[in-house]
Each structure stands twice: as structure tokens, then as C-alpha cells.
Amino acid sequence: DGGITQSPKYLFRKEGQNVTLSCEQNLNHDAMYWYRQDPGQGLRLIYYSQIVNDFQKGDIAEGYSVSREKKESFPLTVTSAQKNPTAFYLCASRGAGLGETQYFGPGTRLLVL
Amino acid sequence: GENVEQHPSTLSVQEGDSAVIKCTYSDSASNYFPWYKQELGKGPQLIIDIRSNVGEKKDQRIAVTLNKTAKHFSLHITETQPEDSAVYFCAASTGSGGYQKVTFGIGTKLQVIP
């Protein structure tokens, strides 16, 4: 069953804590993305990676970090520097080529205790 | 950079009626325009897309039109059903080769009233 998986579905963060969101894909896609979704603001790009061991900041990277050690995995860490982390986080991947579609995972909802 | 505006933000229609959602984009280099449907608590799912060399595309009850000159594209859903109720996002994509920059609209919440 091919696709993108994200875990956990819900995540709770305490003040000053770093938390890591998992994203795995078995679509053999080169590019992977992390978006943040807030009500009324659509999808905003946090980080993206076009290839293993390479990643670039998106529009709202402050307070977040990523790694891309394996093609199929692109974890996102929400650090304590992110002062307003409560949001729905979406991971996406895309195959190579011009105009290829981005496919999304089911999302992780992060809540602050 | 690219800017995508989407209207309306909410839309209520009676079951069986048609629904139209409109988007405009600013970057004339944008060449790929996907539409996503997002149900509550789930990730967006691609429902239809169109490339810049095509003016219209249809898939059963869903169609998308693109006017490159005016830089706008629209989603048309005919014979709406309650299961069409969701948030719909348009997007415009710019890029070539390995990198693709995708800019999303803010979404339209569609409610189909039985």
C-alpha cells in the first residue's frame, strides 16, 4: 500500500520542549515538504528537501529543523524557539519531473499543554 | 513571488446544484494548477489538475478551466452531493527540473445542504 504516513496523529508539547514529527513515504519520491496549516491561512511552507542530505528553508522556517538522511524519511522537529507551535502539520512528497503533483500525508495536530 | 487569491472563502449550495470556486495568480511563469479537497482532520487529496497548455479539463462531475491571459482558473462541481462538503484549495506551481514552488490559496469551505 503506497503512500505517505505521518505519526503521531496528535502530539502534545510542554513549554520548552522539542518534539519531532515523523514523515515516511514509500513512493520513491525525491522531493519532500513540510507545511503548517492554520485556520484561514492556507498552507505555509516550512522546509523542503529535493534530495537526500539536502534541505532548504521555506517561508516560515524559524523555530523548526529537519533532516533528510534517507530518501523515504523527512522528520520535522519543532523546537522551543517556536513560540506558537499549535497547528496542523502536513508532510508532502513529489516525484521528479516538471509539473509533478504533490501528495500529502494525513497530518499531525500539535497542541501545547 | 507568486500570490494566489481564492474566492469565496465559504460557499453553501443545495444538493444537486453547481458550485464554482475561483482563483487568480500573479506569476505568469506558473505552469501547473492542482486542486485539492481536504476533509476535516485529514490531509489534502488531489482531485484534479491542469497544465498551462490546456484550457479546460473534466473528470466526471468536476471540471477546471484556465485562462492564462487573465491569470485565473476555476473549479466547477456539478450535481453536488453531501459528500462534496469539504475545504477546497487551489494552487499554482512554478518551476522546472527538480524544484517546484507551490503556492496555495487560503481555501474554500464548501457546504452541500441535503
Provide the descriptors you would attach to this structure in a database record.
heterodimer, A: 113 residues, mainly beta, 7-stranded mixed sheet, 0% helix, 50% strand, B: 114 residues, 5-stranded antiparallel sheet, globular
What does this protein structure show overall?
The complex is a heterodimer of chains A (113) and B (114). Chain A is mostly beta strands. Chain A contains no helices and 11 strands. Chain A has strands spanning 4-7, 10-13, 19-25, 31-37, 43-51, 54-57, 64-66, 76-78, 87-94, 102-104, 108-112. In chain A, strands 2, 4, 5, 6, 9, 10 and 11 form a 7-stranded mixed sheet that branches. In chain A, strands 1-3-8-7 form a 4-stranded antiparallel sheet, with no helix packed on it. By secondary structure, chain B is an all-beta fold. Chain B has strands spanning 4-7, 10-14, 19-25, 32-38, 45-51, 56-59, 62-67, 72-77, 86-96, 99-104, 108-113. In chain B, strand 6 and strand 7 (62-67) form a beta hairpin. The mean pLDDT of chain B is 93. The chains are: A mainly beta (113), B mainly beta (114).
- The gyration radius over C-alpha positions of chain A equals 13 Å
In whole angstroms, the N-to-C terminal distance of chain B is 41 Å
- What is the molecular shape of chain B? globular
In one word, what is the shape of chain A? globular
**Helix content range of chain B:** under 10%
Structural class of the helices, strands and pairings of chain A? mainly beta
Q: DSSP strand (E) fraction of chain A?
A: over 45%
Helical element count of chain B? 0
Largest sheet of chain B: 6 strands, mixed
Uncertain residue ranges of chain A: none
The helix-and-strand class of chain B reads mainly beta
Number of strands of chain B: 11
User: How much strand content do the residues of chain B show?
Assistant: over 45%
Alpha-carbon Rg of chain B, integer: 14 Å
Quaternary assembly: heterodimer
Count of individual beta strands of chain A: 11
The sequence of SSEs of chain A as H and E is EEEEEEEEEEE
| Main pleated-sheet profile of chain A | 7 strands, mixed
